[in-house]
Automatic annotation (TrEMBL):
One Pfam assignment: OMPdecase
Family: Belongs to the OMP decarboxylase family. Type 2 subfamily.
InterPro entries per UniProt: Aldolase_TIM (IPR013785), OMPdecase_AS (IPR018089), OMPdecase_type-2 (IPR011995), OMPdeCOase_dom (IPR001754), RibuloseP-bd_barrel (IPR011060)
Name of the protein this chain belongs to: Orotidine 5'-phosphate decarboxylase
Keywords of this entry: Decarboxylase, Lyase, Pyrimidine biosynthesis
Boundaries of every Orotidine 5'-phosphate decarboxylase domain copy: 18-283
Signal peptide: none
SMART domains according to UniProt: OMPdecase (SM00934)
């Protein structure tokens, strides 16, 4: 059986460092690389990023939107890239921000299961329909060693409009999302589900301490201050918003300090250095080095 995602992530980070690079083939980037905005351009862009980074970066995060906009043939490009990345030792986090009623969510979550033509290691999901709506995805993830990253406090400027709304108990929506995900990282959650063996990867837990759960949250690196309490999460934090959205390594340190399992993710700031494969690799290495300070 595949090891739990949290353990596999801790392992990948121990070997390759925590950086995640997003594969976001924007039309503007295709043009900047001298490529056509079609499936051929998409494939050449993706191949270059995968060649540059799949052997060195811990996590690659393809943005589904930019493949879907090219139709079924765009998804074939994504499918090939996912398989190549995983074969090269990178974890693949599919950024599709899925979220629907539970019965439909089960279908979306199949992307974490063996036999799916595009099986990935983890998926971004939206909690807008309520905690129960995501439970089928939690079950699938648990059964197959997959992971979920749930949008909690996102990097976009107006995120707080909804995410700072308060529940009857006084918590913000963002905090309620974090607390829900923390519950999923408790192996006792969902009695009867196959729980990860907490002893199997004890050797990997040194670096990230107890933060090796398979269920993480998204918290932007662009926040003025950390306005959610992550102490009980026991899982990873995906931190987007670096580079193009203004977030810096110093912001990451200011917001999250040390001792948390933070996966910083950068897309355009790395991708903009292409199409040269060495330049892409160099940009990712520069980010990794700055983040390590
Ligand atoms: O889930 C995400 O990855 C995500 C969450 C969030 O709060 N903000 C955010 O920018 N993202 C994604 O992260 C990527 C950021 O891209 P860059 O701004 O180019 O680094 C995009 O694919 C976004 O969809």
């Amino acid at each position: 059986m595949t090891a739990p995602f949290g353990a596999r992530l801790a392992d990948a980070v121990a070997r390759r460092g925590p950086l995640c690079v997003g594969i976001d083939p924007h039309a503007e980037l295709l043009a900047a690389w001298g490529l056509t905005d079609d499936v051929e351009g998409l494939r050449r862009f993706t191949d270059a990023v995968v060649e540059a980074l799949a052997g060195t970066v811990a996590v690659l995060k393809p943005q589904s939107a930019f493949y879907e906009r090219h139709g079924a043939r765009g998804l074939l490009v994504l499918e090939d890239a996912v398989a190549t990345c995983r074969a090269a030792g990178a974890l693949v986090l599919l950024d599709a921000k899925r979220g629907d009623i539970g019965s439909t969510m089960a279908g979306y979550a199949d992307v974490l299961a063996p036999g799916h033509p595009m099986q990935v290691d983890a998926l971004t999901v939206s909690p807008y329909l309520g905690p129960g709506s995501l439970e089928p995805a939690v079950r699938t993830a648990r059964a197959h060693g997959g992971g979920l990253f749930v949008l909690a406090r996102t990097s976009n400027p107006d995120a707080a409009t909804f995410q700072h709304a308060r529940l009857a108990d006084g918590r913000t929506v963002a905090q309620a999302v974090v607390d829900t995900v923390a519950g999923w990282n408790d192996p006792g959650w969902l009695v009867g589900d196959p729980a990860p063996d907490p002893g199997a990867h004890a050797d990997l837990q040194g670096r990230w301490g107890a933060h090796t759960g398979s269920f993480g949250v998204v918290v932007g690196a662009t926040l003025a201050e950390l306005d959610v309490d992550l102490d009980g999460l026991r899982g990873p934090v995906l931190a987007p918003g670096l580079g193009a959205q203004g977030g810096t390594p110093a912001d990451l340190r200011r917001l999250f300090g040390a001792g948390r399992a933070v996966v910083p993710t950068v897309s355009r700031d790395v991708l903009g250095t292409g199409p040269d494969v060495a330049a892409l690799r160099g940009a990712a290495q520069r980010w990794a080095a700055e983040l390590a300070v």
